[in-house]
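Reproducibility note. Readers wishing to regenerate the assembly model reported in the main text can use the exact inputs given here. Chain order matters: entities are listed in the order in which they were concatenated for prediction.
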Amino acid sequence: MIAIVDYEAGNLTSVQRALNFLGYESFITAEPSRVADAERVIFPGVGAAGKAMADLKSRKLDLALQEAFRSGKPLLGICLGTQIIMEWSEENNTSCLGLIKGKVRRFPEDLADQNGNKLKVPHMGWNGVHIKRAHPLFEGVSPSSEFYFVHAYYPAPATGTTVLGETFYGLTFASVICSGNLVAVQFHPEKSGRPGLRILANFCQWKGSEDA
Amino acid sequence: MLSKRIIPCLDVRNGKLTKGIKFKGNVDIGDPVEMAAFYYEEGADELVFYDITASSEKRQIMIETVRKVAERIFIPFSVGGGIRTVEDMRQVLLAGAEKVSINSAAIRDPGLISRGAEAFGSQAIVLGMDVKKVPRSESIPSGYEMVIDGGRTYVGLDALAWAKQGESLGAGEICLNSIDADGTKEGYELTLNRLIATNVSIPVIASGGAGKAEHLFQVLTEGMADAALIASITHYGTYTIRQLKSYLHDKGIKVRMNW
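Running the prediction on these inputs yields the following C-alpha cells for the assembly.
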C-alpha cells in the first residue's frame, strides 16, 4: 500500500483522488509506524517550510521519512515535499530533512524573462520540464508535456547529478530531483493532466532505482 | 516559461449548467461534471465553476458537484458564487477545488480575503471583480466602477483601487470580468485589462466578451492578461480548445499544446 504522509500541509485528498482514479489504493497517515510499514510513500504539501518542518518533527515524521529514504522503498515528494528534502530553506530560515545536499531559495523580486519583462512571483501555472536523462518515473511522458506549478521558492541542489529535470522561469531551477529510491517534483502531478497521472502511475509501479 | 492559460467558465445553477447572456435569460444546458470531463480531455488548462443561485440551502448541491468533478479531472479548478465565509471556502477546497473565487462577499467584507489567504494560502484565493465603465469622477478616478449582484448594483468603489487593495489583502489572482463586454462576443475590454494587469503583480484572468480566437490573442498581448476565461465561444462548438490554442500558438503565444 501507498502511504500519503499527512503533516497538515495542504490538500492531500487531491493526490489520493488521482491514485484512486489510477486504481491504486493508498492511505493518508500521520503515524511514523504506518509510514515504516508502507510499501511506498508520497509526501505532498503546500504551505510554508517552517510550519511543515515543525509539524513533521512534532509527530516524529522527520525521522520516519529519513528512515524510509535509507530503507530503499520508493519515495515521491511533491511541491513543498520537494523543498523539505533539502538541507535548509530560505523560507522561515528552516532546517530541513537533508536527504539531498543543497538549499531552497526564493525567486528574486527582480525576476525577468529573456526580454527583460518582469515576472510574477509565485511561479504559478503550466510550464515545461527538461528531463536530463531517462528515468522510470518519466517513461511514456512526452518531452513537450507541461506541468502545473505553484511556488515562490525552489530547490537548489548542490550536486548536479541529483537534478533530473529543469525548468526555466527567469532562472533555471531543479524542478525534478532524484537520488536512488527518491524522486521529488516541484510541480503538482495530481493537477497536471495526463502527463502528471502518468508520473504517478509510474511511481506506483516503480522498484526504486534509476534502472527500474 | 509559463504558458498563457485558457479557462472555460461553467455557470451552474441547482447542479445544472447554464450560460447567461448579460446575466439574463439563463437556460439549463447540461451536466457540469460531464462538461468538465469533456473540457479536461479537450485541453483546458483550468476550469472555473460559478454557482449562479447559491442560495444557502442549495449549497450542498454545489459541494457534491465539486466532489464529482474532482474525481474526474486532474487540472486545477476554482469555484465561485455564494462563498461568504472561511468555512464556505474550506468546504469547497476539501471537496477538491484548487481555488475559491470571492466577489460581492469580498466587497462587503474585505477581511474575508485576508482570512482566506491566511487559512489556505494566497494561491487558493481568487478575487472576482465585476466591473462597469463609468464617467471618471473623484470617487471613481479610473473610470471603472465595481458592481455586484450580477451588475445590477453600483458600489461606489473604484476598480483599480479595489484590485490593489485585494492584492495587498492577500488575493493570489484576479478574475476580471467586464460587465459591458460580457455576452457581447465583441472582444474583451482591453483597456480595463491592461490597466489592472499593469498595476498589480498577481496574475489577471480576463473575462467577458470572447467571440473569436483573435479576441484571446488581443487580451493576452495588448490586454496583458495571464489567462483568458471563455464560455459561449466553446460551449456551443464555435471553436474547440485545440483550435483556439493552435491559433494562439501560430501567432507566437506560448500555450500548452500537449495534454
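We highlight two features of this model. Residues 20-25 of chain B have pLDDT under 50 and may be disordered. DSSP finds ten helices and twelve strands in chain B.
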